[in-house]
UniProtKB/TrEMBL annotation:
It comes from the Eukaryota. The keyword Zinc does not apply. Pfam families: EGF_laminin (PF00053), F5_F8_type_C_2 (PF22633). GO terms for molecular function: scavenger receptor activity. It comes from Magallana gigas. Transmembrane segments: none annotated. This is Multiple epidermal growth factor-like domains 10. Residues 177-207, 218-254, 265-301, 312-345, 355-390 form the EGF-like domain.
Length: 436
């Protein structure tokens, strides 16, 4: 790989050397092996027990290899190798500084137990933004004999990270695009093999669709089997592209219809007349338990035909109902003239008309009238006439009044005459002699 993706990038380190200036972290990225970074001492009798250095590549890159050139002093080769021994190289997508997070990153290389060379290269085919060098000398750890445990100074003269400048390409010249269905458009920087496939695809180059009935990441999820007409679900999403089978809904057709709905994708409404508010069949819409009174057919959406009512429309409307007033659910109706009660079977008594709402005339003899039209069947009381006995006989009343007047007048006249006669006889008896 010819691309040096770490050159002159930003570098940081855990702590600086106490020996003075000129040992910045960036010295390890300037292309000059005579300028090195340096940190404070770690190990026994030192305040620090760990050390790290990292480079920010500026973005996620496809990494191929990491080369580290350690500081070499003539005649001190073994000492220098013992200082660097046991180091680790990590790759991370995010910026990390704490030891726990560094160790939680992707480990590219762990040195030991043999001493490393002072010019070290490892293949590290990873994807990341940060490359981290880490070493430690912990008091509770027993290290190999050749490891330096005191006065451990970290001096990196050059760190070279090689790879492709961005993800999605591979090859010795970084000019081959990764296969289309590689997850996150990432593939092995040398072979082009996909590290992982996009959902719905499998194979080393992710060119094979999931087999029928399976979908998703690694083709590990099984279709639920509720797609319309028995079709298989989409190999990528698991969705039923042609819709759901009757009785099912949702993108993946995993939800049964709610009560009151049925059919493909649950788009149809039940009639609402299934017996006792029971839900209809969610596949067919049929009322499997039967219909409420007043409705018929498998969907219970057809009212009883004229003249019938009740469960299964099996009852005939009562004969004394007015035409077209019989309710198809319970048979209640408007009664024809002369009848009353729920089923219009009770004849009117001392009343007449629809539902016997009109009382017979008070002037009907014995309050008896025709229950249909109110005609007084036994005639009228004195002083009234007409079929409904609603007309007073005025002439008869006048004649009676005259007769009574004559009788009273004659009676008064006779009484006056008798008084005069009595007075005359009384006067004569006293010899008054007036007219005697």
């Amino acid at each position: 790989m010819s691309n040096k993706i770490s050159f002159n990038k930003i570098a940081t380190q855990s702590h600086n050397s106490a020996s003075g200036t000129g040992y910045d972290a960036s010295n390890a990225l300037d292309g000059n092996t005579t300028t090195c970074m340096r940190t404070s001492i770690i190990g026994d009798n030192a305040p620090y027990k760990t050390v790290w250095w990292k480079v920010d590549l500026g973005g996620v890159h496809s990494i191929y290899s990491i080369n580290v050139q350690f500081k070499n002093y003539n005649g001190y080769d073994i000492r220098q190798r013992g200082r660097f021994a046991g180091f680790s190289l990590y790759v991370s997508d995010i910026d990390v500084s704490s030891i726990a997070y560094i160790k939680g990153s992707t480990l590219c290389y762990k040195d030991g137990p043999q001493l490393p060379t002072l010019n070290f290269t490892t293949i590290c085919t990873q994807f990341g933004r940060y490359v981290i060098f880490y070493n430690e000398r912990l008091k509770e750890v027993k290290y190999p004999d050749a490891y330096q445990l005191t006065n451990v100074v970290t001096e990196l003269c050059e760190v070279t990270v090689q790879g492709c400048n961005h993800v999605g390409i591979y090859g010795s010249n970084c000019d081959n695009p990764c296969p289309t269905n590689c997850k996150d458009n990432t593939c092995h920087i040398q072979s082009g093999k996909c590290l992982n496939c996009k959902p719905g695809w499998t194979g080393i180059y992710c060119t094979t669709k999931c087999r029928e009935g399976w979908y998703g990441t690694n083709c590990s999820q099984q279709c639920v089997g509720h797609c319309r007409d028995g079709a298989s679900c989409d190999h990528v999403t698991g969705q039923c592209d042609r819709g759901c089978a009757a009785g099912w809904t949702g993108l993946q057709c995993t939800k049964g219809c709610k009560d009151g709905h049925y059919g493909y994708d649950c788009i149809n409404n039940c009639s609402g007349h299934c017996l006792s508010d029971s839900p209809c069949n969610k596949q067919t819409g049929h009322c499997d338990s039967g219909c409420d009174p007043g409705y018929t057919n498998v969907y219970c959406n057809k009212a009883c035909k004229k003249g019938y009512f009740g469960r299964n429309c099996s009852r005939v409307c009562f004969p004394n109902c007015k035409p077209d007033t019989c309710r198809h659910t319970d048979g209640s109706c408007t009664c024809a003239a002369g009848y009353t009660d729920y089923n219009c079977t009770t004849a009117c008594v001392q009343s007449y008309g629809e539902h016997c709402l009109h009382p017979c005339s008070l002037h009907c003899y014995n309050k008896t009238c025709d229950r249909f039209n109110g005609r007084c069947l036994l005639g009228c009381k004195d002083g009234f006439s007409g079929e409904l006995c609603d007309r007073e006989n005025v002439m008869k009343i006048q004649n009676v009044s005259i007769s009574i007047g004559l009788i009273l007048g004659l009676s008064v006249s006779v009484l006056i005459n008798l008084i005069f006669i009595g007075c005359g006889m009384l006067l004569c008896s006293y010899d008054v002699g007036l007219f005697c």
